[in-house]
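> run fold Sulfotransferase family protein
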Amino acid sequence: MSINTMAQELAAELEDTLRQLEVYRREDTPSSVPAEALPSLLQQCQQICDSIEQTPPLRTLHHFACTGGTLISKCISALPNSVVVSEIDPLSTMGVNKSGWAPRFAPTDLILGLRQAARDVDQDVLVEVFRSSILTAHETLSGQGYSLVLRDHAHSHFCTDVDPASRPSLHEILSPCMPLRSVVTVRHPLDAFLSLTANGWLHFEPVTLDEYSSRYLAFLDRHEGLPVVQYEDFVTAPEEVLEQLCNLLDLPFSPLAFDFLPVIKMTGDSGRSGGRISARRRRDVPQELSDIRHESQNYRALCERFGYDL
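> ok
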């Protein structure tokens, strides 16, 4: 077969193929559709950066005094690149001298300085000063690769002579202006009340288990919807529960955190000493407290809420 013959047959086959393809072409399909240009490498990198959350969440921890919050906070402080600021409440009146007393020297405390000014400063001003400070610290530390964690001093809000309903909580102050990842930790109310009594931190009246339980319930109601971790679970399986906390707070987990516990210093550290974490026996319960605890409806409701025994 000559080359010309082969070329003619090939041309005929191509024409036949094109005719068959023409059958499948829709009448409204343009004869020439320009191909969409692929994004450049720089554009692809920019798209990836834009898809990443620009402001990482601020982490917050919330608990009552004597509920194991210091131990848990110290473990979180020992995690890689965590910066834990302990016992924060911008509207706390604890440590603020009462009217007629000499102002307290605190040159680094701007909010206290405003509280002690000759003219009264509105609560909203204190809130805005606090928000601005936290936002600046959070953004700056995030840019340096650190994770800011605020440990709430809920005792100031719910366990003093201040009406808890008269002011916002730390979580309520911060949530409107920045994304938060928050966790509430709890402990059996009887154990917490016994420890609170032993430390002399009873700043409310009447000083009864029922009143304490009522305030604890109010605290929980104000933090409704936040994940809750029980202290008893933590001391039973510390590594497992710390990893759970890291997942909830979006923090990197490291079991080496427990090795650094002895060198972590933190306010509110009134409980256990040493680096070993384990469950401990309950303090002795006074007979009068043992007799009346079953009669307290608030205490019963609090125990039932988390499956604690009475």
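Residues 3-24 form the longest helix (22 residues).
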